[in-house]
Amino acid sequence: MRTQIVLLFMWMSWTVQAQSGHEWEVYLNDVMTAEDASSVTWEDTYDLLCELEQHPLDINQATREQLEQLPFLSAQQVEEMVEYLYRYGPMKSLGELRMIRSLDDGRRRLLTCVIFIGEDGGSGGRVHDSHHELMATARIPFYERKGDAGAYRGYPYRHWLRYQLTYGDQLKAGIVGSQDAGEPFFAGKNRLGYDYYSFYLQLNHWRRIETLVLGNYRVSMGMGLILNNSFGLGKVSMLQNMGRPTSTLRAHSSRSSDSYLQGAAATVNIAKGLTATGFVSYRAMDATLNSDGTAATILTSGYHRTETELEKKNNLKNTTFGGNIRYQANGYHAGLNVVATHLNRELKPNTSALYRQYYAQGYDFLNISADYGYVHHRFSVNGETALNRDGALATINSVSLQLSSEWSLMALYRFYSYRYTSLYANSYSDGGSVQNESGIYFGATWQPSPSWKLMAYTDFAYFPWPKYQISQSSHSWDNLMQLSYTKKRWKFGGRYRLRIRQKDNEDQTALFTRTEHRGRLSAEYSRGLQIPDNKGWGWSSRTQVDFGFTSFKTHERGLMVSETVGFTHRWLRLNGGMGYFHTDSYDSRAYLYELGSLYSYSVIQFSGEGIRYWLMVRANIGKRLMLTAKFGTTNYFDRSTIGSSYQQINHSSQTDLDLQVRCKF
Fold first, then answer.
1. Which listed residue, 338, 398, 441, 493, has the most CB atoms within 10 A of its CB?
2. Which whole-number Å values give the CA distances from 527 to 40, 491, 534, 567, in the listed order?
3. Cβ-proximal residues to 646 (8 Å cutoff; 6+ apart), any chain
């Protein structure tokens, strides 16, 4: 029976056509690795791309800072686009993107998803139309968790609401309310309704003010050594954007309750090429408290379902302020950055375990850094060096070379002292934090023709201080190779990743090597809406096979075969998918990215044996109303319960219905 299921997926890939989603969704799936898939920073990247798709940039009015928000562009590509517009004036059509030599065909297609040419061709000033958008989303479960019987203080439905006003590209204001399943609504600590609210107002291009944000916002400076709560830097995406640093300020308009700042921030143009950014933030955070009232850990899950979780809500107050001054001209850029934080409770983690000895501690935190670089159309150099209040050092530096239209190379070196701490750091790392790591990364991209593209990297990291489940110095080695072939409406892809890490043996006297192999094969067929005689219809299909093998104390294997199918015709879009998975354990688990409703990031991990299937319908009723419904089921063959603790479901299957309504006026 299960062999027949696998064969069914293969047959579907040839007989059923599917609209696999927008180009940027394909990009996101292509650059994610297993670690990226579960990262909160990818949710932020997804939200940003959703926002850009719904509110694209007028390429002729876009600033350098706005182009730098696009995570798939390298520094050379941003520089060349700015230079092209300066030299030749406004673009008259998106076909002019072909004149920018550093843009490959894939990035040109991605850009068409998030930019447009204004009606006046960019010569008559900015558009001043105002738009209102109201969006409501809910998830209805067709099962009961153990916590729903009384431990959870709210009902089992997850829902969120967002209203946003935009006025051209000059003004954006809105409010987001979000509720996780099991959290009280208009009750207890949530007597004002939703468990989480985000208010924001963003003003752009007003006299000398480049950007002004009030309410909730996100900031990134340099390469993220002291502050980056915007999008993340995964290993494949690092190779895509060639190590480009970011310096962005934007409103926080997503449902994520982690890593944002709350207060006011502004970027001001002081003189030509010289800008200054300042910010101040005061917000409450969740924390686990010690018996003496100090904070043991800062929590980021955002869950407030049980009495225990509610007791940890907003019991730590965080005041943060800082800013930077940045100069950029003739390809050079340099900046000086500072971030200071004060907590109303002492952060006092349990340091009895050796690997926790240098966790962030105390009431006050101070980090300063300098970022620097030079961008040429053939190469770029970027870096940042930072110190914390104790003088501990962190530095990251990269160089990228565009040898020809076919070859590009990149090298990156980082050194993060085991004594270095920063509450808001988020940069490139193998160990998951900007601390206790040094390493070197080499990457290469070879594109001998528009059809073929090969990407590869190797990354070696050394950890001088003990880590979790590692009682002494250790190292890791990560390698990936990804090949794609595109021909007309077909695209074939293959990926192989080898990762070697070290862990303690049972009595912690020596280190054992854990080896992990992961691979992916995919085939896509598309017939898009860009063909004139289609009259508003399109289809495509994607077949994907993911496999894994891990070797530590035992050998474990995992396999997943998935198929995405659907159809688009004018106002109607249908999508569906099926996936069969069979893994020996959680260590060999499989990941699957699914299409979902707007602003709903959906990467699901599977272990054991079972099948996943889903169907999504999206209808545009006129120009103002959009309705979306997604029905999904995961059915396990090897168990009678799903999950554990309060999340346990006493059944072998799990079914959810997602509903979304969007109204524009």
1. 398
2. 33, 12, 9, 10
3. 145, 146, 147, 151, 152, 305, 306
* Structural tokens at position 202: 């963003």
Beta-carbon neighbour count of residue 344 at 10 Å? 12
What residues pair up with 5 in beta bridges, in sequence order? none
Amino acid of residue 374: Y
d(CA 176, CA 154): 19
Residue-by-residue DSSP string for 109-159: HHHHHHEE--TTTTSS-----EEEEEEEEEEEESS-BGGGGTTSSS-S-EE
CA distance 546 to 315: 43
Radius of gyration of the chain (CA): 25
pLDDT in tens, 500-539: 999 998 888 889 999 999 999 999 888 764 443 344 677 8
User: Which of 452, 375, 459 shows the shortest CA–CA distance to 407?
Assistant: 452
Whole-number pLDDT of residue 4: 44
CA atoms within 13 A on the CB side of 350: 6
**Hunting for tokens 């070196």 — which residue is that?**
413
Q: Tokens 């968790």 belong to which residue?
A: 145
Tokens for 546, please give them.
Answer: 């993911």
Mean per-residue pLDDT of the chain? 86
The predicted model scores a pTM of 0.86
Contact criterion met (CB below 8 Å) for 246 and 227: no
CA atoms of 431 and 499, how far apart (whole Å): 13
Give the H/E segment covering residue 334: strand 332-347
- CA of 211: how far to CAs of 63, 172, 217, 283, 662, in Å? 11, 11, 11, 21, 27
Amino acid identity at 202:
Q
In which element (H, E) is residue 2 found? helix 2-15
Which whole number is the average pLDDT over 5-11? Answer: 43
CA proximity to 452, closest of 407, 412, 484: 484
Q: Please name every residue paired with 555 in a beta bridge, in sequence order, or none if there are none.
A: 551
**Could you report how far apart the first and last alpha carbons of the chain are, in Å?**
51
DSSP state of 290: P
Structure tokens at 258: 């982690």
Question: pLDDT tens across 242-255, in order?
Answer: 566 667 888 998 88
> DSSP letter at 534?
G
Chain length of the chain: 665
- Least Cα distance to 338 among 219, 260, 227 occurs for 227
Cα separation, 409 vs 445, in Å, equals 6
Task: Return all residues near 304 (Cβ < 8 A) that are at least 6 apart.
Answer: 180, 183, 184, 189, 190, 195, 286, 310, 312, 313
Per the CB < 8 A criterion, the answer to whether 663 and 625 are in contact is yes
HEC-encoded secondary structure of 631-650:
EEEEEECCCCCECCHHHCEC
